[in-house]
Structure formats: structure tokens, C-alpha cells
Amino acid sequence: MAVAKEKSSRAPDPGPDSLGEKFGPVAIFLHWAIAACIVLSVAFGLISGFADSAEVTQATLAIHQSLGVTIFVLALVRVVWRLTHPVPPLPASTPRSQKIAAALTHLTLYLILFALPVTGYVGLAARGRPVTIFGLFDLPNVVSRSIKTSAAFQNVHNNLQYFLYGLLVLHIGAALYHQFVMKDGLLARMWPRKAPAAP
Length: 199
Prior knowledge:
Helix content: 55-70%
Strand content: under 5%
Structural class: mainly alpha
CATH class: Mainly Alpha
Mean pLDDT: 85
Low-confidence stretches: 1-20
CATH topology: Fumarate Reductase Cytochrome B subunit
CATH architecture: Up-down Bundle
CATH superfamily: Transmembrane di-heme cytochromes, Chain C
Number of domains: 1
Order of helices and strands: HHHHEEH
Largest sheet: 2 strands, antiparallel
Shape: elongated
């Protein structure tokens, strides 16, 4: 009876799906910085496309371009950091198919985050237009002037945005599914909290 009483008084084992290890502060900062830049870039891009004033179009497009370059740099740093620092494992209850889907989604998302700024840059540079970063400096133009090249890359740039939107919906939807349906604490790994942290 004493043994049974002792067992019943113990706290339940949190198991493999407890909140546990989270991402480190650098990875968390890069994640949310990129997310914020994406939201702002999309917003300014849409404003520039629908603005009636040429001045508003130019101003918002300049900010959109600057944010795109910022995203490229942050994503590059994020990839290097991810390759050189261990990533906390997914909850043990996560099916193998979901782990594969998550890996493919992340890979494709990074590729698009690199492709969008590059295609946007070429689309402008091929027309001889400067790409100014927050009014501080211009990126060097290393592209030969060609209206055909500009149009082709601008078309790719415009279409890639829809792939980005789709991937973001999948990414956010998966995070919310884990948080509120599976309740395995996956979303908390990217929120600052007191828990063992990966570098």
C-alpha cells in the first residue's frame, strides 16, 4: 500500500512530446526577423502595385526592394546557422510523413526566399534601374541591360510570390495544428521561454 501511495503521488512523466528543448535565441531572432520582413515586404509590394500616385509607388517599391535584400541576407545567415548548430528534434509522436513534409517545406521555403530577391534584382537591374537599400547605397549592377531579360525575371518574380504564400499557409497551418490539435508544444519551441535551449 505504501508503494502504491508513493507511485500515485509522483508527477506524471512528461513524455517525449513535452515542450522540452527549444531553438536558441539566435535562431528564434532570425526566424521572427525574416517573418516580419516578409509581411512588410508583401504589404509594401501590394501598395506599390495598387497605388495611384507615382511618388507612392516609387517610395513603397524602394522599401519593398530593401526588405527583399534584407530577407536574402537574413535567410543566408539562417541557413549557415542551421547547418552549424543542432536543430531540436520534432516531437516523437510526429509521423515520419510529416517530418519529411516539414523538411521539404523548409527547403522549398528557403529556396524561394533566395529566388525572390534575386529575380527581383535582375528584373530591375536589366532595365538599368538602381536597387537602393533603404536610401543608403545602391547595389552594384552586374546585369547586362535587356528588356527581354528584365521581363522574364520580373514574370518569375511575380509568380514566385504565390508559391511563397502557399508555403507560408502550410507552414503556419502545420504549426497551429501541432499546437492546438496534437498539443505537442511544437510552436513553443520558437517562443522565448525558460527551457533547455539548443545553441
